[in-house]
Amino acid sequence: MGEMSSFQLGVIGALFLSVASSVSIVICNKALMSNLGFPFATTLTSWHLMVTFCTLHAAQRLNFFESKAVDVKTVMLFGILNGISIGLLNLSLGFNSIGFYQMTKLAIIPFTVLLETLFLKKQFSQKIKFSLFLLLVGVGIASVTDLQLNMVGTILSLLAIVTTCVGQILTNTIQKRLNVSSTQLLYQSAPFQAAVLFVSGPLVDQFLTKQNVFAYKYSPVVLAFIILSCLIAVSVNFSTFLVIGKTSPVTYQVLGHLKTCLVLGFGYTLLHDPFTERNIIGILVAICGMGLYSYFCTQENKKKQSGDLSLSSQMKDHKETAALLAHHQEKEGHEVKKAAKDSIV
């Protein structure tokens, strides 16, 4: 029971850290890009990952965690895939309307459910599916405005969905199958993710913004916000791997939509962004879906835990019965041998 309660506290802490750090970085990056005119999102992400790796390397040298050797090919492919997925999401935003980009992000949950069902044989109850449907409808109402389609943008969105889903499923699978912690996996894969984005980032950003990141004039305020963004990103990257490892890719996506609702709320409260009745209704529906998802997941986990406990108690009873029978048979054998010995005498 103690281990279970500590695990639940760990999950709650990971979820809280993920929400707090993600909302913080969105507000920081919005100020950096919208107010200060720094539009180089992909390059900024590569800097995030480089700072994350350097921070984890320093922590590992100070013995805050132990580095664990993982198959280099697996980690390299995993890191490259995650780097590509980030680049594709940014390209998808560049080639599509904001509404279609939001639809792309919404499509990640059902596609993840489909992949886990087909390839990992994971079962999702009808209640869980209904709560996810309600969540997606709510976020769609709150955030999706226009849906302008084009061929290149649609293809990029499909590729972004596939790579993101596979990357998040692998984040969970690798941690469990190779018995590595979220910190160890992030430490091993961050250099490969950073390398992909460090090379492709300036090209992608120049293509999307028609500006060169190396020709940009960096003021002290812009540099301060970039440093702040990179520091917050360490927490974002760490909590992402932590949440996916402790829960599931679907739960992480549900958490992502909670962040979307919070960002909309903070945008209205702090930045005075326009807020309509549609936004309010959508957020309320999404929160209802999230609440149902959390409730149904908790109920199913309790049933699973009680089933595991009853199974373990049955196995324990079976072992005790077998031990008693063995002891009884051994005792009877000794008595037979003693009787035979007495008759001979």
Automatic annotation (TrEMBL):
<feature type="transmembrane region" description="Helical">
    <location>
        <begin position="38"/>
        <end position="58"/>
    </location>
</feature>
<feature type="transmembrane region" description="Helical">
    <location>
        <begin position="132"/>
        <end position="149"/>
    </location>
</feature>
<protein>
    <recommendedName>
        <fullName>Sugar phosphate transporter domain-containing protein</fullName>
    </recommendedName>
</protein>
<dbReference type="InterPro" id="IPR004853">
    <property type="entry name" value="Sugar_P_trans_dom"/>
</dbReference>
<dbReference type="InterPro" id="IPR050186">
    <property type="entry name" value="TPT_transporter"/>
</dbReference>
<dbReference type="GO" id="GO:0016020">
    <property type="term" value="C:membrane"/>
</dbReference>
<keyword id="KW-0472">Membrane</keyword>
<feature type="transmembrane region" description="Helical">
    <location>
        <begin position="70"/>
        <end position="93"/>
    </location>
</feature>
<keyword id="KW-1133">Transmembrane helix</keyword>
<dbReference type="Pfam" id="PF03151">
    <property type="entry name" value="TPT"/>
</dbReference>
<feature type="domain" description="Sugar phosphate transporter">
    <location>
        <begin position="21"/>
        <end position="294"/>
    </location>
</feature>
<feature type="transmembrane region" description="Helical">
    <location>
        <begin position="223"/>
        <end position="243"/>
    </location>
</feature>
<feature type="transmembrane region" description="Helical">
    <location>
        <begin position="280"/>
        <end position="296"/>
    </location>
</feature>
<keyword id="KW-0812">Transmembrane</keyword>
<feature type="transmembrane region" description="Helical">
    <location>
        <begin position="155"/>
        <end position="173"/>
    </location>
</feature>
